[in-house]
Amino acid sequence: VLVSDGGPGARQSTVWVMVQVLDENDNKPTFPEKVYQVKLPERERRKKGEAIYRVFAYDRDDGPNSDLSYSIVDGNEDGKFFIDPKTAVVSSRKAFTAGSYDILTVKVTDNGRPQRSSTARLHIEWIRRPPPSTLPLLFDEQFYNFTIMENDKVSEIVGVVSLQQRSTLVWFDIT
């Protein structure tokens, strides 16, 4: 900014002004998919809640405008499911039998003013758990190494772990 006292023979000075631009909440949070379809093995009732699936969203805003909160807004009338409002992990303590089907609507809301939100559907099909196989798993590689950059999006693919083709379903846990 150029400043002058305005008189004849005025002296001028330069003053630096720092301007901080605040983010406007002009983006709503977005789910990568509108419908998530998962098949999970039947399960018995658990004392501790067990994770079922994680639905996540992203928001292109910054600061509080991109702080997200998740809730189940439909399909949970009997209270079988709960969702962690920050991590978006859907869990349950209840039993689920093969052949049953649940459809949940998950809502994500940002912390902006005004708040913006989106929804996605989670379709869960409960299937029969097959008996354990006696055949060993044969992976395509002996070791898998993946590199993740700290600024990668949550939804980015890190790598693919693959098995040689089998005629039976493969059950796995990521630990």
From TrEMBL:
> Which Pfam families does this one have?
Cadherin
Which stretches make up the Cadherin domain? 1-31, 44-138
Which CDD domains did the record assign? Cadherin_repeat
One annotated GO molecular function: calcium ion binding
What do the Gene Ontology cellular component annotations say?
plasma membrane
Q: Does the keyword Nucleus apply?
A: no
State where the protein is found: Membrane
GO-annotated biological processes: anatomical structure morphogenesis; homophilic cell adhesion via plasma membrane adhesion molecules
SMART domains hit by this protein: CA
Q: Which PROSITE patterns match?
A: CADHERIN_1, CADHERIN_2
Q: Which SUPFAM superfamilies match?
A: Cadherin-like
Keyword Signal included in the entry's annotation: no
Which branch of life, at top level?
Answer: Eukaryota
Q: Which InterPro entries match?
A: Cadherin-like_dom, Cadherin-like_sf, Cadherin_CS
Q: What is this protein called?
A: Cadherin domain-containing protein
Organism encoding this protein: Pogonophryne albipinna
